[in-house]
Write a structure and sequence with these properties.
The structure is a single chain. The chain is α/β, with parallel strands linked by helices. It folds into two domains: 130 residues, D-Maltodextrin-Binding Protein, domain 2; 89 residues, D-Maltodextrin-Binding Protein, domain 2 (3-Layer(aba) Sandwich), CATH 3.40.190.10. The chain has ten helices and eight strands. The strands form three sheets. A four-stranded parallel beta sheet has the order 1-4-2-3. Strands 5-6 form a two-stranded antiparallel ribbon. A two-stranded antiparallel sheet has the order 7-8. The protein is globular. The protein starts with 6 loop residues before the first strand and ends in a 26-residue tail after the last helix.
Amino acid sequence: MAETRRWIGGVAAMALLVAGASQVALAKTKLRVHIVDYTEEGRQHYLKVVAPGFEAENPDVTVELEFSGWSQHLEKLTTWFVSGVAPDVIQIGAEDLGYVVTNRMALPLDGYLARWGQLSDFPKPVIVDGQGGGHQYTVPYRIDQRTLVYRRDLFLQAGLDPERPPTTWDELVDAARRLTKADGQGRITLAGFNVGINFLLFAPFLFQAGGSVLSEDLRRAAFNQPAGVEAMQFLVDLCTSTRSPRPPALAACSAASQPWPTKASG
């Protein structure tokens, strides 16, 4: 096709997006889909089930899947768009929407979604996440819940009640301290809590402290206000403080990709 199509969405939205695009296709359309959020099992499912199934239902379309990780995905997308070789469908996090819309890397989907008529099947918060300037730019492909996860067996070993997980910051610190294990040299071998260097892991503590990411008018950063400083200091203390009542509670604050609790040896 001569026209460059720029979409945002997930693989689950492919049928909707191509249904609109194929109406103007003069020949078999090649649809490039860029995916960043996947496991190896998920990648195989996309390649062996999702894409072939979609092509079978839409014989005038060939699906070309591209896989990469979250690391530097915006830089890659920017380079592709500048070079004129951007994918047709891109998968992003909600926090990336402002960047891609401001840089004109996305097209509004309002007309396509109106004909589709199924966007209301999704919960309202994830629909709103994809909106900007009065337009809908995304179709949700999943709802990602960040919550406290703990192991019952380790709670029992540490003398904690697995039926009563921490409900306050002080209780979290106490549980992390009791769950942490160290060797004879004082090196942590089992971390009681994995903080991780990631905004999505910082955000819950920010909200619990009464803060927000942006001001009410959405024009200024607000996470650098006292509530944000309090939340960040709490997480920093978990990693570095040697003062009571918050001794070191985890092995490494950079272990964001590790399952909780984190094992370490140095």
